Amino acid sequence: MPFSEGTPRTAEHRLSVNPFYGPANPLGDMAEAPPTHRLPDPPMAPATAHQLVRDELMLDGNARLNLATFVTTWMEPEAGVLMAECRDKNMIDKDEYPRTAELERRCVAMLADLWNAPDPAKAVGCSTTGSSEACMLAGMALKRRWAQRNADRYPGARPNLVMGVNVQVCWEKFCNFWEVEARLVPMEGERFHLDPQAAAELCDENTIGVVGILGSTFDGSYEPIADLCAALDALQERTGLDVPVHVDGASGAMVAPFLDEDLVWDFRLPRVASINTSGHKYGLVYPGVGWALWRDAEALPEELVFRVNYLGGDMPTFALNFSRPGAQVVAQYYTFLRLGRQGYRAVQQAARDVATELAGRIEALGDFRLLTRGDELPVFAFTTAPDVTAYDVFDVSRRLRESGWLVPAYTFPANREDLSVLRVVCRNGFSADLAELLAQDVERVLPDLRRQQRPLTEDRGAATSFHH
C-alpha cells in the first residue's frame, strides 16, 4: 500500500454534516462537526458516519472504467455474499477454521495441476495477499537455496537476481529488502522485455535465479520462458552453473493455461522452480489474494516453513503476513468451482477478443502506432505515430480522463526512455460495448488534439497517477 505521511496538527479540517444525515433529532449529530485528521471526541450514529464516508468516496474514479489496473473490479453477487460471510475468519488460524484451510489446500492443488507440476500431490504452495508477497516468498526461497549451496562463501559473497528491466516494482523491493543485487536486462529497440541470451550472460556463481515474466505490465507481452530455460541449460553445459527460474505469472499464469495451451512456460520445464500468480487479477477475484507454488518440497527450503497443528496433523505455512481474512481464498475457490476450465477459457477469450478488436480500432484511427495487440495478455500498448507532433500520449490520457476513463500514460525504462505509451488493460467486465464507447471517445478528442500547437503536458511525472 502507498506510504502516507501524517497531516500537520495545524491543519484543522472538519466535515460538514447535513441535518438529514442525523437520527430522529436532525440536529443531534450537528452539535460539533467531526475533525478529519484526529479522532472525534463523541461517537455518532452509524448512518451518519456511513453517509459522510460514502459522500467523500463519490469523488473516486469508477473502477470499471479504470483501464490502468489489472485488478478485478467485478464479481458475481454470490461471490460477494461468500466474502462477506468469511471476512471475520483469520486465514492464519488454520486449526480454528479448518474448512477455510482445506479450501486453500484445494486451490493450491488445482493450480499445481493447471501448471503441470510433475506430481501435483507433491507440489507445495500457499495463498498470499497478492503477487507482491508471492514474489517475495519465491525470492526468499531462491536466496536460501543459493545460500545452502554456497555455505562456504556466504555471507561473504553477495547474491544477485537476474531479470528484465520491465519487472514489476515488487522485485526491486525484494532486492532492496533482502540485500540482493538486481541485474537488469535492458530493453533494446522494439524488444520490450528480457532477452534470454542476455539474461544468461549476466549469471554467475552468485546468481540465485532468473525471473521470467509471463505478461509484462509495460505492454502485455509474454517473455519467452522456454527460450530462457534453454539458454540457462546451455550455460550449465558450458560452466556447470545450475540457475533456477521463477516465473512471475501475476497475470499470464491465469491466461496462458486456458488460451495458449501449447505454450510451454510452466513446470513442464524442469528449470522452473516456482511460479506465482495474482488471484485478484486474471484469477477473477476481488483484491487481495495471490498464490505461490514450488514444483516440489526440494524447491522450498524446509527452514522457511512454519508448521501449525491442523486437525491433529501437520499444516505448513509460509507467509510474510500473519492476520488476513479468509474471504479472498474462499472467493478464489468459489470461482474455480464456478467456472472450471471451460468457463475460464470463455472469460479470458472474451477479454482477449475485446483487446484485439479495440487495438485494431485504435490503429485504424491513423494517429497511433501499436506496440502490442492484446493477443497475449488481453492488454495492449500504443504510442503516437511518428508524424504526430501536436500532442502526445499524456495529452490523450488527460482528455480521456474528462470522460471518466483512466488510461495510463507512462515512459519506458532505461534504453527506451524516449518512448512514451498508453496502455489499456481489458478485464472481465470491460465489455465490447464499453470498448466501443472508449474508441468513440478517443476518436472524439482527436480533432481538438490535432489543433494544438504542441504537447501541453509539461510535467510528465504528474500527468498520470500510474507508476510501475
Structural features, described:
- By secondary structure, the protein is α/β, with parallel strands linked by helices.
- 34% of the residues lie in helices and 14% in strands.
- It is built from 11 helices and 13 strands.
- The strands form 3 sheets. A 7-stranded mixed sheet has the order 1-7-6-5-4-2-3, sandwiched between helices. A 4-stranded antiparallel sheet has the order 10-11-13-12. A two-stranded antiparallel sheet has the order 8-9.
- A hairpin with an 8-residue loop joins strand 10 (368-370) and strand 11 (379-384).
- The protein is globular.
- The relative contact order is 0.13.
Strand order of the largest sheet: 1-7-6-5-4-2-3
The structure class reads alpha/beta
Ranges with pLDDT <50 over ≥5 residues? none
Integer average pLDDT = 90
Share of β-strand residues: 5-15%
Radius of gyration: 24 Å
Helix percentage range:
25-40%
| Tally of strands | 13
What's the total helix number? 11
Biggest pleated sheet: 7 strands, mixed
Secondary structure layout:
Layout (H helix, E strand, L loop, with lengths): L45 H12 L19 H10 L11 H17 L9 E5 L2 H19 L10 E5 L4 H9 L3 E5 L10 H6 L5 E7 L11 H15 L5 E4 L7 H4 L12 E7 L11 E5 L11 E5 L2 E5 L9 H38 L3 E3 L8 E6 L8 H9 L7 E3 L8 E6 L6 H19 L18
In short:
With 468 residues, this protein is of the alpha/beta class. It has 11 helices and 13 strands. The model has no long low-confidence stretch (mean pLDDT 90).
